[in-house]
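Severity: low
Component: inverse-folding endpoint
Summary: output formatting inconsistent between runs
Steps to reproduce: submit the following structure tokens with default settings.
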């Protein structure tokens, strides 16, 4: 499957529309600084979720050790709280996964529509080279 190259279909197919204008229009509308801010917030939340998950895992491991060491009479009373702890951690991990997946899919969708910048950059490079060459050769022509 080939990714779209950004812009409307008619813009991409219209030879009169330069790759530079297509790329420029996309990135103007993309609002990179806003997206970076959103990614920063999401990254901080992901790091916080990872830290909380690690703490909860240690606590569950400790509670599980205590449960294994407990007498048969005490195990009955500890079982409900241990099971509840595992259920809460599964719920937290599910929320964490959903948040990470949504963050990825959000930026993926936006970047999927991005035009390939290579044709525009190549066009600029050729134009710059021609301009530079003309500037160098111009004194020789006069």
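Observed output (run 2 of 3):
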């Amino acid at each position: 499957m080939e990714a779209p190259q950004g812009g409307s279909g008619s813009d991409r197919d219209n030879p009169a529309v330069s790759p530079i204008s297509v790329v420029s229009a996309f990135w103007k509308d993309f609002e990179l600084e806003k997206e970076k801010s959103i990614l920063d917030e999401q990254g901080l939340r992901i790091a916080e979720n990872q830290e909380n998950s690690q703490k909860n895992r240690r606590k569950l491991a400790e509670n599980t050790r205590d449960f294994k060491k407990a007498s048969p009479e005490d195990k009955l009373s500890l079982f409900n709280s241990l099971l509840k702890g595992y259920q809460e951690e599964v719920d937290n991990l599910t929320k964490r996964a959903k948040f990470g997946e949504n963050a990825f899919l959000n930026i993926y969708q936006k970047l999927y529509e991005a035009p390939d910048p290579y044709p525009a950059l190549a066009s600029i490079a050729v134009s710059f080279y021609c301009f530079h060459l003309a500037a160098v050769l111009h004194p020789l022509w006069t």
